[in-house]
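Justification of resources, computational component.

The compute hours requested in this renewal are based largely on the per-chain cost of generating structure records like the one below. Each record pairs the submitted sequence with a full structure-token output. That output is archived, and it is also reused by downstream analysis tasks.
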Amino acid sequence: MLYLSRIAHKAGMPASTLRLLDVAVSAMLIVVATPLMVLLAALVALDTSAAPVYWRQRTNAHGNAYRRYEFRTMRPPHDDHGHRLTDAQRTSWFGRLVRKSELAQLPQLFNVLAGDLSLTALSGSKRVLANYGPPD
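The structure output for this chain reads:
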């Protein structure tokens, strides 16, 4: 998405056009990815024995709090006897696969559609990385 954001910013697109692009692309991707997201949700639910999607409280570029949704990649923090598990014990091979392939972030398309995130705007960390990239 960094590539898309560089194109949009170089073109000097107004914010309303960027938002329209966010809505169109995220809606299209949601329609296309829905079968995959349903399959992933079922497999994650079986793997983790918990709700397949979880959320974290985050702050967007405007300083507003929102819930960022992701597929769960870890099992609950305690075993059946109440003992705390390490992160390595909580993450299954399937969870590692989902995380490494970045499929865990597919539910964030709904955040983009809602206006909490943007596909076309540089996030803070990517803005820093873009500043250290090769000259254009």
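The first strand starts at residue 53 and ends at 59. DSSP finds six helices and two strands in the chain.
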